[in-house]
Amino acid sequence: MLRRMPPLWLQIAGFVALVVVLGLALAFAIVQLRGPRLEVVRPVAIPENEVNPAIWGLAFPREYETWLRTKEGRKTLFAGSIPYDKLEEDPRLRVLWEGYPFAVEYGEDRGHAYSVEDVLKTKRIQVLAQKRGGSAPGTCWTCKSANVPSLMAEMGAANFYATPFEQLRERIQHPVSCANCHDPKTMAPVVKQVALQEALQKLGKNPRELSRHELRTLTCAQCHVEYYFAKEPKDYLVFPWEKGTRFEDIEAYYNEKNFADWIHPSTGVPVVKFQHPEFELYTANSTHYLAGVACADCHMPFVIEGGIKYTSHQAASPWHRMEQACGTCHLDIPFIRKRVEIIQTITKGLQDAAENALLETIEALKAIKDNPNADPKLAEEARTLFRKAHMRWDFVSAENSLGFHNPQEAMRLLAESINYARQAQVKALQALQRPQARAP
């Protein structure tokens, strides 16, 4: 018996349905192959001098919501963003920074959202104001508020720096956020920090002709760097990069200027207090830097939500989000986590050894300080070596990765610190070898 064919219209309908199903399947496959799409934000105009991050958040809600998460405190292996007293944890620091505001207060930093609140609370500002007999300089606001770039443009950098800290207080409303790093018209990352613009020019770079890739690191280098306050113009913020950005370049710069942040009382040695030189350590030919990895790649990784890809603005340690921060390049996340642990544990051990060596050297230098019978040549050599040792230790200690940004460089500097400290200790002891020089 012959099977009857379905009507022609039914055959056509079935064929059309098959084509539709195959088309949908193909479209779905293409979307999956293309991966997440970049979000097209709604057109909210941001005024040129707008510094309130909540206004920026109307156009970029996901970025704003992640920026708000910088209020979250989380502990990492050795640090994190939960405040604690580092002087209580490591009392050796009080001796190493004796006579300087850091010996009065030194705590773990919180996230960007707390930058204004925390600088107002710190005792270091109060100590600095007391030493000056009035107020700390306006320079202390430079890396603490989104209001700063527009205020500097209005007042001029030199005038802003020289204005008393308290006098600027009423004009500071918002913490470090969108306006510090982005052009409100194009949303492109930009260098707004005057000190960084000037430092880049000294290195032969035009701050207005930087690639987007360079800016993903240099916007962070607006603040995560070593700096000092020049005497002329008064309290002018300077990045000591005239000779280069590596440690020895900075050391040579400071030595040439006979610069010191303070005189260490127990030893009489003029020393430098370094300030979070993350950029300088990272760019000293670290593995990741040479591979083209930018700061934002790890500290502000891309996030995918509902097929939308955007940059997390929860600038923080990658320790708690390694899948996002490291997983782009590394497949074995447990192995990477173990590598971080090994690097930081070794660095911490060397840092402790350097601190112990410096403390013993301080005791040796105390014995020759103000001792007229100590051999002057050996005593001066001991003090010079102590300065070299102290600077190397403090450079790594002040840097916030505990060596991970550049393990080889951090370990090299700490090893040199230990070596110079022990040499200084020996020189100080030799200076007392003359019979009449021995301490009573």
TrEMBL record:
CDD domains: NrfA-like. It is found in: Cell envelope. Its EC number is 1.7.2.2. Its main location: other. Keywords: Calcium, Heme, Iron, Metal-binding, Oxidoreductase, Signal. GO terms for molecular function: heme binding; metal ion binding; nitrite reductase (cytochrome, ammonia-forming) activity. PANTHER family: CYTOCHROME C-552, CYTOCHROME C-552 RESPIRATORY NITRITE REDUCTASE. It catalyses: 6 Fe(III)-[cytochrome c] + NH4(+) + 2 H2O = 6 Fe(II)-[cytochrome c] + nitrite + 8 H(+). This is nitrite reductase (cytochrome; ammonia-forming). Belongs to the cytochrome c-552 family. Signal peptide: none annotated. The gene is nrfA. It comes from Candidatus Thermoflexus japonica. It is an enzyme of class 1 (oxidoreductase). GO terms for cellular component: outer membrane-bounded periplasmic space.
